[in-house]
Amino acid sequence: MAPKIVDKQAKRAEITRAATKVFARKGFQGASVDDIAEAAGVSKGTLYGYFENKEELFYATFEAFQAETVAQCEAAMAAQVSARDKLTACLMLTVETLQEHIELFPLTLELWAAASSGPARERFAVVMERLYRQFRRMTAELIEAGKTRGEFRADVESQAVAAWLVGGLDGLMLQYWFDQSLDARGWTASYLDTVLRGISAHPAEGGNA
Known about the structure:
By secondary structure, the protein is an all-alpha fold. It has two domains: 1-51, Arc Repressor Mutant, subunit A, CATH 1.10.10; 55-204, Orthogonal Bundle (Tetracycline Repressor, domain 2). It is built from nine helices and no strands. Helix 6 packs across helix 7. The longest helix is centred in the middle third of the chain and has 28 residues, at 121-148.
């Protein structure tokens, strides 16, 4: 009988999904490799064949979530024409995705804490830097595209606006985690409309985001 062929990439993704659920339920410190192996339906030895340790699994959960969110943003942007609409579609979708997965937000707080101190400080800090850098870059590129198309003012500092949009979204989701009665989506739409009117080359043509 021929040996079973294992799709290693699919298996890694399966273990990562299981780890995400365990981390969301127990937190990074509370979760164990045994918990994750059990949730994934694999032996501990098999799990270590894909991930060196719990820290690597934790990184993988964030990278997978980030990759999925970016892919969804790219798909949403592809359906739009103007830079304004692309930017709005991407940021609104990000808010909705974060709302749908708000149970993962405490993991972000743990990642922040780990990035500030402890033995894994440098590696966790790199993960956070890469995450923020990617979303700032995507946002700044959309603003630059809008400037090129004549939609946004030529004097707009794309990096500055991108940093504030990303930081503002981050802060709003932190507030939403504490108080889920907040209208995160509605407030984001209103804030975006205000920002886009401010950087628009034709503010009188602006509308609700």
